[in-house]
Design brief:
Two copies of one chain form a homodimer. By secondary structure, the first copy, chain A, is α+β, with helices and mostly antiparallel strands. Chain A has two domains: 15-157, Nucleoside Triphosphate Pyrophosphohydrolase (Alpha-Beta Complex); 183-232, no CATH class. In chain A, 30% of the residues lie in helices and 26% in strands. Chain A is built from six helices and ten strands. Chain A has helices spanning 59-71, 136-153, 157-160, 167-178, 184-194, 220-230, and strands at 15-25, 30-37, 46-47, 50-52, 77-84, 95-103, 118-125, 164-166, 197-200, 215-218. In chain A, the strands form two sheets. In chain A, strands 1, 2, 3, 4, 5, 6 and 7 form a seven-stranded mixed β-sheet that branches. The two termini of chain A are 39 Å apart. The interface between A and B is large, with 46 and 46 residues. The first copy, chain A, binds a DNA duplex (27 and 27 nucleotides) through helix 5.
DNA sequence: TCAAAAGTGTTTCTGCTACACCCATGC
DNA sequence: GCATGGGTGTAGCAGAAACACTTTTGA
């Protein structure tokens, strides 16, 4: 038991890091951002951007700061996905990490650039990810799980989509996130009936494909009413 | 950015603690275990049992060890509920905590005894909790939320109940956890139809009340089938 | 003219909700 | 005999699932 010190300062302390699993959607597939590590350990391996907690910031602030420094991104939505503290997870010594998941809009993905710690910075479709450094494969699994929870409970899906989007796009997003097929008619019916989507007069930007799809915008007010009705437990 | 050191050892480190929100059910109400702090800060205040992370253990191991040391309990089910890292959360200096929620069976609750760090150790119905030390009120809110998730997604409710239990008991548990009323008939119908309960020939232990309630046992196999059917997203 | 993509409606089933009466026991 | 607690069934409704055809455009 910890009885030796009168103050916390006397206790052993681990190094504490934060890691970021950033998701984006390119209209077809769900992607995650990886950096190629520029220094050991795991030099040249792909990993999630992250770094050490500083003294004057919370863990969430650290996650945002590291993400900004290492990739230039500033996500709107960011949630904690959990801690990882296996004794041997970092060959340099004992570190624990608190991992965060976040999402960026399609327009932001080109802003991602490799910071000083990284040789490279690249978006990978989640089904084509390379082997990851440390225990980042575990972190990814939990991040995907938390993304699903976020999409079910909160309007996170719309932070992954452009300001206006089509229902087929949205359905492809759901297909990738939940790793299953949805019936096109039921999918459309459900979300159109929910009131969380407002059709938007297409600026005729694209008439490329056959039978141009209708564009929608997220309707926050409608979403609130929908959520109020649904939230029982 | 953290570029100064080659090794993690050179970075600033926070003190890291774990905290435990332990739930139990006494047949009528959901309770949480609090200790009265025996030393500053917040001496004589009620708080969740917890303590500092040691070098040779994971965070979850630390949570279990501290719980054992401070209260004598060894919960079967324990999940992480999140991190708390506000700069001023501990007047002694910068600490971050990783909080865990756990449940113990009714038979175990009498085993809870105050360890060295605590003057007292007591179960409180969740609606009658005293003011808490640190940011433990925030921790409690998130713990209750995670308990709900656990009960919805996993058979956590049955780890809060005795080996055999009645449906009215189970319903009281749900009422407290989800803070809402359930229709008795619908509640029974739902769980009896689920296949996760097996009636057990009452040993005639109690015929106290009018119309002695039927005792059930958790049926793991039935639960698995039920969950398989339900798990869609 | 054919393939690809997207729009649309109906039916069925299942799960959830609401709701009332009877029985046994203890006081 | 009455209050308490616990057992049981039915009918309505809403959300999910299954399912096929038509339209437009580009190759």
């Amino acid at each position: 038991m910890n009885k030796k010190g009168t103050f916390s300062y006397n206790y052993w302390r681990p190094a504490v890091t934060v890691d970021n699993v950033v998701f984006s959607f390119d209209g077809t597939h769900l992607n995650v951002l990886l950096i190629r590590r520029g220094r050991p350990p795991f030099k040249d391996c792909w990993a999630f951007p992250g770094g050490f907690l500083d003294e004057q910031e919370t863990l969430e602030e650290a996650a945002r700061r590291e993400l900004k420094e290492e990739t230039g991104l500033t996500p709107k939505y960011l949630i904690e996905i959990g801690s990882f503290s296996a004794l041997d997870r970092d060959p340099r010594g004992r570190t624990i990490t608190i991992a965060y998941a976040s999402v960026v809009r399609p327009g932001q993905t080109e802003n991602a650039t490799a910071g000083d710690d990284a040789d490279d910075c690249q978006w990978f479709p989640i089904v084509e990810m390379p082997p990851l450094a440390f225990d980042h494969a575990d972190i990814f699994q939990k991040a995907l799980f938390m993304l699903r929870i976020g999409i079910i409970r909160d309007p996170v899906a719309f932070m992954l989509l452009d300001d206006t989007f089509t229902l087929p796009e949205m359905q492809r997003l759901y297909t990738d996130v939940f790793n299953r097929e949805f019936d096109r008619r039921n999918f459309q019916k459900k979300f159109l009936a929910s009131g969380m989507l407002s059709p938007v007069r297409s600026n005729d930007e694209e008439k490329k494909s056959a039978h141009a799809p209708i564009h929608y915008r997220f309707n926050e007010e409608g979403y609130m009413q929908f959520k109020e009705k649904v939230t029982k437990c």
